[in-house]
């Protein structure tokens, strides 16, 4: 998170766990919402994310998935990197070239 690579959590908490929403949203056992909030993240697409930095992100995620026992296509029934899209495993410059964009 702190490497400045544009990787952040998509949600800090599940909805009922945000302090500012207490009293507005029912606090309940929502295991799926909490699991979703805990395992989703965002990946930046800034020009600062060059191929070298993308490789750091990719290898870090690959290492985490290996530690948790999630292979590329068997974790929660979907591909771990963009649901199997070719651009998901490509570097930013490769993804841009494949989509017809500049690079």
TrEMBL record:
Annotated region described as Disordered, given as residue ranges: 75-103
Amino acid composition bias (Low complexity), ranges on this chain: 84-103
Official protein name in the record: Uncharacterized protein
